[in-house]
Amino acid sequence: MTGFRDAVHHLAMPASQQVEYLRSIGTAPSADELALEFDDVKHLCPDDPAAMTLSERIDALLEAMSGPGPVWHTDSLATSAQWAEVRTLAADLLHLLG
């Protein structure tokens, strides 16, 4: 579950920390790595109804954001309401996971 928790943690970080993380792994100014990491490990979500619901909500929101557009630039991490919602859901999921 470490990979799952790490991906959720990256989604829950404040926008400035997300940008720094993306720079550190060499994908900035693209923000899509945050979604790709989650997509790679979402199947590892614990078999807990509340966790699964939050995971599915995060996945649905990221899916709704998919496609080309400014939302996938690191600048949008601090300004997009969609990214703010992703962070909130991810923080809730992290809290639930303990």
UniProtKB/TrEMBL annotation:
Can you say what this protein is called?
Answer: Uncharacterized protein
Query: Which organism is this protein's natural source?
Result: Lentzea aerocolonigenes
Supply the source organism's classification: Bacteria, Bacillati, Actinomycetota, Actinomycetes, Pseudonocardiales
